[in-house]
Amino acid sequence: MGTVAAALLIMGSSVPAFADEPAQEPGPVLIAEGAGVVPGTVTDAPIAGSEVAEGVSSGAPLEEDLPIPGETDGPELLGPKEPLSEYCGPGHWFAHITKNKKNTMKVYDKAFVKNTKSYSIDFKFTSKKAGTTTVGGSVTLSGEFKALWLGKIKAEVNGNASKSWTSELGVEATGKVKAHDTVYGDYGIMKENVYGYTAYRYSNCKTGSKQYTTAWAPYREGWLIH
After folding, report:
1. pTM for this structure?
2. Which of 225, 4, 6 is nearest to 107 (CA)?
3. In this predicted model, what pLDDT tens digit does every residue of 133-167 receive, in sequence order?
4. What are phi and psi of 143, to 5 degrees?
5. Phi-psi region of 147 (alpha: psi -120 to 50; beta: other; left: phi over 0)
6. Which residues belong to the signal peptide in this entry (predicted)?
7. What separation in angstroms does the CA of 170 have from each of 20, 59, 125, 173, 187?
8. Which of 95, 100, 101 minimizes the C-alpha distance to 80?
9. Which alpha helices (DSSP H) does 71-185 contain, by range?
10. Are 192 and 165 in contact (CB under 8 A)?
């Protein structure tokens, strides 16, 4: 794996440049497939006019829940306060979050660039695959329960959460790859993950049996560089 610090690139933002490496001769390039090297490898035989090393697909499996660096499990959340009145209104279903879990990424595309030069170079990844991620849970959820979980996540954890998110083609991420190093990129949709339960609350404030689940909702897309 490369030594570039892990960073999340959203909709074309860039990795900070390495200030301790002076600029040298230009020429970050991508050797075309069929030229006798691994696609995505940058060598000392530049293609005329090339300025940026284009990432190519790594062909690796696409993860359903790729961990996002820096994400940690949130605290246990306190349960709802007891109602002051014995009358709770008409009976209804509700969702309750007990823990904010680590966020993850549904990966739709992967790319890499390998630099065999003796100096750092620029690279660019461009998303070439897309997909859609929707609200869901570790147990099967009906449309009504998906709406309950989405409402709770938006109200209590992440206001950007969405019922459905479709990633785009052509989203770019740029940065630097050090000499004799490799940079990998994962492109996809980030998911807000929580743990809790759904239950039915009767008009006398009594609660029925609880069904626990990990629930998620998409909230962002972008490149994860490592």
Report:
1. 0.75
2. 225
3. 999 999 999 999 999 999 999 999 999 999 999 99
4. -60, -40
5. alpha
6. 1-19
7. 31, 18, 9, 10, 11
8. 95
9. 143-156
10. no
